[in-house]
Every structure is written in structure tokens, then in C-alpha cells.
From TrEMBL:
This is Uncharacterized protein. It comes from the Bacteria.
């Protein structure tokens, strides 16, 4: 069922807040902090293990089901890109954004190229 505009804004703000906290954990000098990230991932219906087990298409379907907007999808992909184990998931999500948003982004294109090397 589609969300109304007000509920969609609230949901995007909630997702944005969770992603902000995850981004803080992803970019600390020690790298990915799995134990600290797990409770935040759970709020997004994810876990370290579920992300690892998902295909790129399954991750794309999951974030679509949770009503992520394209900006939050990109932030999640940025966070995944910080962990070498999730590089392929990040690339899949960036590609999904490029296709589904129907707007070409040089920034995302450059992120894909950097991860593909």
C-alpha cells in the first residue's frame, strides 16, 4: 500500500536518521563496527548476515519495499561501499538508483567506477 506524503516524509526522516548513525560507524578509523551497527541495521529490517546473504537484486527489492527514497538508497550504498565485503551490494544498489531514478548521476557513475577497480 502506498504511503501518503506525510507518512513517506516521516519514514524517510526515520531512515535518514538511522543511516546517519550507520555512516558514523562505517567511517571510524577501525573500519566497520559490526557489533555497533547490528542494532541500527535491525531497524532497517537488515543484519550483517542478511546483507551478506542477499543478492544485489534482493537488496534492491528490500530497500524499495521499505520505501527508501533515492537519496537514502545512495547513502546506504555509500555505507556498504565502506565495507569491502559488501562492495558488490553497493555497486548493485548504485546501478539500481541510476536506472530507477531515470536520472544519470556522474557522482554515482564515479562511485561505481571506483568500486569496480
Amino acid at each position: 500500500m502506498p504511503l501518503s506524503l506525510g507518512l513517506r516524509d516521516e519514514e524517510n526522516e526515520r531512515i535518514n536518521n538511522i543511516l546517519n548513525k550507520l555512516m558514523e560507524l562505517a567511517y571510524v578509523p577501525e573500519g566497520w563496527l559490526k557489533d555497533e551497527a547490528q542494532p541500527l541495521l535491525t531497524q532497517l529490517g537488515l543484519s550483517y548476515e542478511s546483507i551478506d546473504a542477499m543478492t544485489g537484486d534482493e537488496l534492491n527489492a528490500h530497500v524499495t519495499k521499505l520505501h527508501f527514497d533515492f537519496a537514502n538508497m545512495e547513502r546506504l550504498a555509500d555505507m556498504l561501499a565502506a565495507n569491502p565485503a559488501f562492495k558488490d551490494k553497493a555497486i548493485a544498489l548504485y546501478n539500481f538508483i541510476q536506472v530507477e531514478s531515470k536520472m544519470f548521476s556522474f557522482d554515482i557513475f564515479n562511485k561505481i567506477n571506483a568500486l569496480s577497480k
